[in-house]
């Protein structure tokens, strides 16, 4: 079954009672037993629930995995995956993974006797150089946040396999429609289903998908023991979102490509980070491991004041955290997604004060471009003391 069909038909046969086409919400904490000797397959919602089971089967089908466990948030899924580590273990983390994952690994894991080293995912050989006898896991993602750099997933997995390291890959930015990391050699795929999977900014969730039964069973056991389970309604919302994922990813990618091309021709925009642009350093690699380039773009403009003014002057793009919803969002990484890092850590990762991040939604691309255009003009007018911008306007009267 192709992904667009699987998202609608896997695990979602009409229920036996009324043959409802859409799976009802099983808003119940417990399920009655037919007989005392045999526990039902689904007995208690912390451990399992029909809405969760349906969501898990669709996600497993889309990622090509045999096991999926859905969680109450992406971070709950991160914590569950890292619970495979034990005191004395060492983990290698890519420098530009999601800030919350970074914070958890650097701040919490050392308290449990687990150490970590940061590596550059664009230099897979660094894994070999930095691995220790106690290393057990490599954590990475692509395209990365916020600079959309693209790492070679196959090479990283090949080195990790040689060194007997588990690979944990966050596929949130691409979604299984655009990238299937298990096919590229990854052991465990992670999602914040809050983002593209649900797609409507109305729920929070996470998931782990794998073909390894030991890791898959450990995730299910973890949720049973910790209660990090999603509610039936949140699973229902994620499953409803999944039905249109293939369509949405196509439109997110088309819109982002148009916006990125427009930005790259704008005289005041200094850099555009989007893997769909032919001059992006990861373009060829992204073309070989993704079937589309997704909806995330970052760009730099002017200085801190100009960037902040742009971010607060859009009318269709909403200034908000998060990504992956149908509505376009604009973010200022320095104070928002990467606000928890030190200035030094931010600059090391290329998060400069003039960087803006866009989550391009599925609205009409003409409206999105017009909105960015007016926001940039507003920012230029407000930055009269910014001579560089002013001089550019003088040289390009069409910008005034
Ligand atoms: C790439 C990525 N992974 C994981 C997470 C964490 O997910 P959640 O917010 O659902 O806990 C986020 C949240 O922004 C994210 O962007």
Strand-helix topology:
Elements: H1 3-9, H2 50-63, E1 67-71, H3 74-82, E2 90-94, H4 99-107, E3 115-119, H5 125-130, E4 135-141, H6 153-162, E5 166-170, H7 175-178, E6 188-192, E7 206-210, H8 213-226, H9 232-242, H10 245-264, E8 269-273, H11 283-289, E9 296-301, H12 304-311, E10 318-319, E11 329-331, H13 343-348, E12 355-359, H14 365-382, H15 387-395
Parallel strand pairs: 2-3, 2-4, 4-5, 5-6, 10-11
Antiparallel strand pairs: 1-7, 6-7, 8-9, 9-12, 11-12
Helix pairs in contact: 1-2, 2-9, 12-14
Description of the molecule:
With 400 residues, the protein is an alpha/beta fold. The chain has 2 domains: 3-242, Aspartate Aminotransferase, domain 2; 245-399, Aspartate Aminotransferase, domain 1 (Alpha-Beta Complex). The protein has 15 helices and 12 strands. It has helices at residues 3-9, 50-63, 74-82, 99-107, 125-130, 153-162, 175-178, 213-226, 232-242, 245-264, 283-289, 304-311, 343-348, 365-382, 387-395; strands at residues 67-71, 90-94, 115-119, 135-141, 166-170, 188-192, 206-210, 269-273, 296-301, 318-319, 329-331, 355-359. The chain has a 7-stranded mixed sheet with strand order 1-7-6-5-4-2-3, sandwiched between helices. Helix 6 links the parallel strand 4 and strand 5 (166-170). The radius of gyration is 22 Å and the shape is globular. Pyridoxal-5'-phosphate binds at residues 73-75, 98, 100, 145, 170, 172-173, 192, 194, 204, 206, 322.
Radius of gyration: 22 Å
Whole-number tally of structural domains:
2
List how many beta strands DSSP finds. 12
Helix proportion of residues, in percent?
A: 25-40%
The biggest beta sheet is recorded as:
7 strands, mixed
**CATH class category name of the largest domain:** Alpha Beta
Q: What would CATH call the architecture of the largest domain?
A: 3-Layer(aba) Sandwich
Which molecules other than protein and nucleic acid are bound? pyridoxal-5'-phosphate
CATH superfamily of the largest domain: Type I PLP-dependent aspartate aminotransferase-like (Major domain)
Could you tell me the CATH topology label of the largest domain.
Aspartate Aminotransferase, domain 2
How far is it from the N-terminal to the C-terminal residue, by CA? Answer: 53 Å
- H/E element string? HHEHEHEHEHEHEEHHHEHEHEEHEHH
The average pLDDT is 95
The strand order across the widest sheet is: 1-7-6-5-4-2-3
> Helices and strands: which structural class?
alpha/beta
- Give the low-confidence spans: none
- Approximate shape: globular
Number of helices: 15
> Beta-sheet strand percentage?
5-15%
């Amino acid at each position: 079954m192709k992904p667009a069909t699987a998202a609608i038909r896997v695990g979602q046969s009409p229920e036996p009672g009324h043959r409802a086409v859409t799976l009802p919400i099983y808003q119940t904490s417990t399920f009655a037993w037919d007989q005392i000797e045999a526990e039902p397959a689904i007995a208690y919602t912390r451990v399992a629930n029909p809405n969760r089971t349906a969501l898990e089967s669709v996600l497993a089908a889309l990622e090509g995995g045999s096991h999926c466990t859905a969680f109450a948030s992406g971070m709950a899924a991160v914590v569950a995956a890292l619970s495979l580590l034990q005191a004395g273990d060492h983990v290698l983390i890519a420098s530009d993974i999601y800030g919350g994952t970074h914070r958890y690994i650097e701040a919490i894991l050392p308290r449990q006797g687990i150490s970590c080293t940061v590596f550059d995912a664009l230099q897979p050989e660094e894994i070999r150089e930095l691995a220790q006898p106690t290393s057990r896991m490599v954590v990475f993602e692509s395209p990365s946040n916020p600079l959309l750099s693209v790492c070679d997933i196959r090479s990283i997995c090949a080195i990790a396999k040689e060194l007997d390291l588990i690979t944990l890959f966050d596929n949130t930015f691409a979604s299984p429609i655009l990238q299937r990391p298990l096919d590229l050699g990854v052991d465990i795929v992670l999602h914040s289903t809050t983002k593209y999977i649900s797609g409507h900014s109305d729920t929070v969730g996470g998931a782990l998908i794998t073909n390894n039964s030991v890791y898959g069973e450990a995730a299910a056991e973890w949720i049973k023991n910790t209660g990090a389970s999603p509610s039936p309604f949140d699973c229902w919302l994620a499953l409803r979102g999944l039905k249109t994922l293939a369509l949405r990813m196509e439109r997110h990618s088309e819109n982002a490509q148009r916006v990125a091309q427009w930005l790259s021709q704008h005289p005041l925009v200094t850099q555009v980070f989007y893997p769909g642009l032919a001059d992006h350093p990861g373009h060829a690699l992204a073309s070989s491991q993704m079937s589309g380039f997704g909806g995330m773009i970052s760009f730099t403009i002017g200085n801190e004041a100009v960037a902040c003014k742009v971010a607060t002057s859009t009318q269709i793009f909403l200034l908000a955290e998060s990504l992956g919803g149908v509505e376009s969002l604009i973010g200022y990484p320095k104070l928002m997604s990467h606000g928890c890092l030190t200035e030094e850590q931010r600059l090391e990762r290329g998060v400069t004060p003039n960087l803006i991040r866009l989550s391009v939604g599925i609205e009409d691309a003409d409206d999105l471009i017009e909105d960015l255009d007016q926001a940039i003009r507003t920012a230029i007018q407000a930055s009269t003391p910014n001579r560089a911008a002013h001089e550019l306007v003088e040289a390009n009267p069409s910008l005034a």
